[in-house]
Amino acid sequence: MCMLQAEPAATPAAAPAAKAAAALAAKAPRPRILVAAHTNVAVDRVLLGLVQSGFEDVLRVGSLPRIAKPLLKYSLHCADDSKDALAQLQGMLADASPADAALIR
What we know:
45% helix; elongated
């Protein structure tokens, strides 16, 4: 397993971190990469880079409202049918744009 610590999203290091994670994922048969960062945005940028590189075996852990909408389907809560998770998703739908609502559903 490899651990990658992403820099804050506003720094230029966020994009190279995504490229480094994608390169690591491409070299191993079943790569396991832990991405940790100080902000949700930084983690999301690295994971979005992995997904855009074709790496689909991703699990995003965190508070649902703070996860980037395109990554919600990779959320730990995706398969969670608890009332709390459903209530959070319904609350997010109420404030979402049509494009974001499609990603939330």
